[in-house]
Model the fold of this input.
Amino acid sequence: MLEAPAELLNKYADWTWEPVSVYPDRSAMHRLSSLAQEIHYLKIVRQGWHPSAEAEAERTLWAHDFLPVPRVLGRGMTRESTWLLTESIDGIDATAEGFRKDVNGLVKRLADGLRRFHGVPVEACPFRFTVSDALQHVQQRLQTDQIDAARDLHPEFADLTVEAAVELLVDSRPEAEDLVVCHGDYCVPNILLRGTEIVGFVDLGELGVADRWWDLAVATWSITWNFGPGCEDLFLESYGVARDEGRVQFYRLLYDLVS
Done:
């Protein structure tokens, strides 16, 4: 498992460290809590892995002027990893059992949250992930043997080889893009609520100017993963768009291939 930098191990030696999510040799998230009930989160990402903790730090710092995102407390790198330390947001992620009492209401709020995110001025955002950027990134990952079909492809694409998946992605490239500031991983666990109000967006390593369907395709996928079938149409209706099946499939496959 990736080790935390020595400077943080020393600084937070008297805090409780709890692993939140661990992907061996790729990334790890730790929850740090003090006796005074302060809570911080430490993300560690292996060098060379996408997105890096450094990329997430830069995007989170930028987004702070526009959206409720974590306050960055520190960032850095070691020989094996990049890391990001953030302050916690007083909210609960949208997968919490208590929110399931009104799934339809939650789905509508999540759609409203994405529309709010997409309202950030495109001209203010220095980060880009257009289709051209994305395809270049995927080709680089293919050439450096970073894509693993068994690990990276969801069941919808599991019958494809890596090469066939990339070829399908290139062949199904959308003809046009509707550019907005995208979250990049607008999944249910990455949205924090307090009561019925969205109070935080987290996991911003892939934030950038991109086609709004980059978020819409992944968001609706996540809605089904977390709440079962039947809610995707409600999400899209609440957001205010009609389903574009071609873009949905393109951006879901892209999601599997970019990291």
Notes: Residues 212-227 form the longest helix (16 residues). The domain at 92-258 is CATH 3.90.1200.10 (Aminoglycoside 3'-phosphotransferase; Chain: A, domain 2). The mean pLDDT is 96.
